[in-house]
Design a protein that fits this description.
Layout: E1 18-21, E2 24-27, H1 32-44, H2 47-58, H3 61-68, E3 71-72, E4 75-76, H4 79-93
Helix pairs in contact: 1-2, 2-4
Length: 101
């Protein structure tokens, strides 16, 4: 007889996490399919090309627009800061950053 193991209790079906950026809260798509596609995007493209695709994969179009329009003291969001947002969202989804409980 074949071995059988039930892993149901180890799986997570929670809602999507939220990333807070100043006064802005954006939902991060955390389903398995999105994460697999995201890994492929970074494996197949240069980092710069992957950024645009990653934004579209993990954030809603409305949230991408809000993120890109962010300003502080009259200055727009830097490319480096955009990378930080994407990296932080990925870490949150992959469990590297547990976030606030």
């Amino acid at each position: 007889m074949a071995k059988k193991i039930n892993i149901t209790d180890k799986l997570n079906f929670e809602s999507n996490p939220i990333v807070v950026i100043g006064d802005l809260e954006v939902e991060v798509k955390s389903d398995a399919e999105t994460m697999l596609r995201l890994m492929g995007v970074f494996a197949e493209n240069s980092e710069l090309q992957a950024v645009g695709e990653a934004l579209e994969l993990i954030f809603s179009p409305e949230d991408v627009e809000k993120i890109c329009k962010m300003e502080k003291d009259g200055k727009k969001l830097s490319a480096n800061s955009l990378m930080t947002i994407i990296q932080s969202a990925m870490e949150l989804v992959m469990g590297e950053d547990k976030g606030e409980q």
